[in-house]
Design a protein that fits this description.
alpha/beta; Nucleotidyltransferase, domain 5; 7-stranded mixed sheet
Amino acid sequence: MGEWRYGVILDAGSSGTRVHIYRWLNSDTALEKASDVQLHSLPVIETDKKWTKKIHPGISTFGEKPGDVGPHHLDELLSHALKYVPLQEVPNTPLFLLATAGMRILPPVQRNAVLAQVCAFAKKTTRFQLPDCDVHVQVIPGETEGLFGWVAANYLLGGFNNPKNHDHGKGHHTYGFLDMGGASAQIAFAPNATEAEKHANDLTLLRLRTVGGASFEYRVFVTTWLGFGVNQARQRYVKALLDSSPDAPELPDPCLPSGLRVTLEGKAIEDASHQDQGPEPQLVGTGKFSECLHQTYPLLEKEKACLDEPCLLNGQHVPAIDFDVNHFVGVSEYWHTTHEIFEMAHKDKAYDFKTYQKQVEEFCTQTWEDIEKGVDKKKWGKKVDEEKAQEVCFKASWLINVLHDGIGVPRVGIEELKGSQNTTKAIIDGAKEKGFLDPFQAVNKINDFEVSWTLGKMVLYASSEISAPSAEALAVGFGSNEPGIPDDFQYPGGSYRAYTKGDEDWHDNLFSDNPRRIPGFLIFVLILVVIGFTLCGRERRKSATQKIVKMFSRRSGGRHASLRRRRGFPGKFFGLGSTPSYERLESGEAADDFELGSIDSASDNDNEHSDSSDGSRIGRTSGWVTPQIKAGVLAGQPPTPTWETGRDIVTQGQGLGLGPPSLFGNAIDRGGLMSRTDSRERLKDGRRSRNTSPSRMRSPMMSSLKET
């Protein structure tokens, strides 16, 4: 195991799957290099924009054909990961595929079949660490997704490492987390002391560990609302329209701009088209946003009985939120719907209800013809196409209802904020300078770092790899709010392995009993053969080589010239005379096998976080952001720590995984070791090998991100 540890997470959402790659210093190396401040901080995780890639659609679409999920979906994502994880570190790199809302609503039989195929394909085609498929490949509950998001947000904002710099009052220093996707929505926050004591049984115990080995705990409330994501809410809204007028050929829709007609599935209808003349009812936009707000309000289902007071949406229990100390950040749709159109994605623009509702009203009361012209002229930015424009009015109305009538976030700009000194002008000027101290702030990135629940997963995983200072120290992970280790406690999956100088050189461990390594004896024999062949003299080498060539030529029909053209350096070494330089075995698609080029992330019209107008600017944070001050460091406090790696890479947080801890040396399926042989067999049969397949062994000519 080398100085750096890597982790790969596949976020399998409802609209697509995104691969995330993270890395962090081996715990021994981090301990050796850490300053006193860093010893009391969480591990530093690094990532980069080019390490992330998303493809569509989601794996839930393979429910009826689970066998296709590997070659037609995972292949591209795993190939991308193998481009950036160093070859020698692949067997030490844990791989997780954690599915969310899209897979939760799939029938159990189909869901299990897809997950089984995911694990089988990953084991067969790669050497990533997959000791337990039940832990590494699973559908996670919405509560777990929300908890990971809460960890990521607080890690990046500095709520963990610098609690004194994030005093919200009443001894509170963490931030609440809101997430909304296509199918579900989550909330996670640490209630104030009074509510935490009153609702102790409803909280989740979370335990982390610093670089120095010290543990600390938080008690967090987390819940999810399945069916309350924007896409599912829209489906319930359309059903309500149909139920109110079951026989009407046209259904007036105030959440669509006037002049726009769409199918029940939301596809625009052109005049005289097949959809226009078909029997299916049409939705006809009226562009009345105030009426849209009124008609989406019942979707909150606040009338449902609350069996455990207090409740918010859908009759689900949530402890009372003290907005004096509970300051929330919202990601995914909370960001896209408030910023991508109405603020041109200006990241420093804070959410202000009065300003936001005015902007939405101005947009949604325009005719569809005027909106189309604005889209063509890029009036709202390059990311806003006609599809986004026709959906945003419903999404905005749903978000406003969820935030203010559902969760109860104060309407900034209209309602007076108790204890807040921020004026409306300050809110509009920017959120960064104010330190995220408003009741709600939509974010996509914090100091150029994407706020993703996958980061929270890695924070836990890396934290769990740090050795405990004593046998009595409690494990890292989360579970029921009980003393000690509760029965349902979930371990991130990390196992500690001491790092020694030179351990990064794989040849130092040829005779290791690690099942992932090529048997040392065979390599030793091969080395002796090469040495003997080299020392036997030029003429004997030449004679032996010619005999081998003749033997193969008889089997291959005498194609000597083709073989010689490809000899290059080996031909010179073995005494075959001057030969041309190396020529690639394949042309076209596979000609890129030995090039490590950047991969452009697929654009994502539904909850894409990776794209940024700032490109892949890199910096370091590890939760050291101090939002109260623009410079990011409070006067008199220690400066932002950096590891002396000489690198310019985005740092974020550290590790995570679920299930009982296990040593990385556990037996792993080594099907991936035969990948080069498989590739050659396909070439011999005359078929082109696919250069993006993860089953292909990486060339030594590939250069990964330079490390120090």
